[in-house]
Amino acid sequence: MKVAVLIPAFDEEETIAKVVVKSKEVAQVVVVCDDGSSDMTAKIAGSLGAEVIRHKRNLGYGASLSSLFSHALQTDADIFVTIDSDGQHDPSEIPSLVEPIATGKADMAIGSRFLRKGGGVPGYRSAGIRVITGVSNRINDTKLTDSQSGFRAYNRKAIELVAPSDMGMGASTEILLKASRAGLTVAEVPIAVSYSKGPSRNPVYHGIEVLLSSVKHLSILHPLVVYGIPGVALMLYGLYLGSTALAVYRDIHKVIVGTTLIAIGSILVGLILAITALLLWIMITLMREPAYRNARVYVQRLAAPARLVSGLACGVEARGVFGRWLDRLYLFGAAP
């Protein structure tokens, strides 16, 4: 089977040559996406026989993967492998990584740094990866050991279904989410890793970015839970504080300003969250269910007066979050 190696790269002139050369030893096609590098990354990769895709500016890891996946579908390869350009993965392990796909046991394979003893992952990295993997497993209902590994293999079906829209490091989690929803079989293969270079990005920032991306995807999957429950809770809390303030005013004719303001704020924020949850749920249902796609015209008709009412009732500045969601809902209904 024909294997294509896909390498996202940003300012990796020191390591890209080794990754490309070793990848060409085990694969028929090597493609590098130069994500707006300011060094010689693209020239070095091209001079060594790799196909090079260039971004004019740095767009992010997910954007690089998206470009590579699109390009991969134009080749005649059967299996596609993504590998980091910093040299932490060994391209000689590609044959073992693609084995589950070549034998038809899986649609996607992930090289796990935690299935082999002495994997070489520093303690702080290991802790962060395990936390993120735990969150990813909860979202995707999987039992992976390394959801953040960039060393992965895909068959053509998987490449067509899991292309990320997230432009940053959250793409790794998004791909797993799409794989889970598409019913793809995912296997893990033990790999070694070498951290000869320091982290290219702040690991704390990286972890926060991935966790926030995971929360974003969770909110798309379950908007009523992520936004609706907190919204209802805030409204109930506001009503409780409001009733308390009202009882005090009734007894001693004194307004508790702080409690009253918190009550009003809680009710308003809770109402905005609840409306956001409902609108997201409606939009997602319409987009996911083929039977409902013809209902877009009704969405537009419902959203148009709602936009007007929200503007008149709340004013331009106060429309805030739910006003913007009404705008998006209106545009969704108008979409072809």
In a nutshell, what does this entry contain?
The chain is 57% helix and 11% strand.
CATH topology of the largest domain: Spore Coat Polysaccharide Biosynthesis Protein SpsA, Chain A
Helix content: 55-70%
Element-by-element helix/strand order: EHEHEHEHEHEHHEHHHHH
Mean pLDDT: 83
Q: What's the structural domain tally?
A: 2
Q: Can you tell me the overall shape?
A: elongated
User: DSSP strand (E) fraction?
Assistant: 5-15%
Helix/strand-derived category reads alpha/beta
CATH architecture of the largest domain: Alpha-Beta Complex
Number of DSSP E strands: 7
Radius of gyration: 25 Å
Q: Uncertain runs with pLDDT below 50, 5 residues or more?
A: 306-336
CATH level 1 name of the largest domain: Alpha Beta
Describe the strand arrangement of the main beta sheet, using strand numbers.
3-2-1-4-6-5-7
For the record, what is the CATH homologous superfamily label of the largest domain? Spore Coat Polysaccharide Biosynthesis Protein SpsA, Chain A
Number of helices: 12
Report the biggest beta sheet as strand number plus sense, adding barrel if it closes: 7 strands, mixed
Write the layout of secondary structure elements.
Blueprint: E1 3-9, H1 16-24, E2 29-35, H2 41-47, E3 51-55, H3 61-72, E4 79-82, H4 94-102, E5 108-112, H5 123-140, E6 152-155, H6 156-161, H7 171-181, E7 186-190, H8 203-221, H9 223-252, H10 257-288, H11 296-318, H12 320-334
Parallel strand pairs: 1-2, 1-4, 2-3, 5-7
Antiparallel strand pairs: 4-6, 5-6
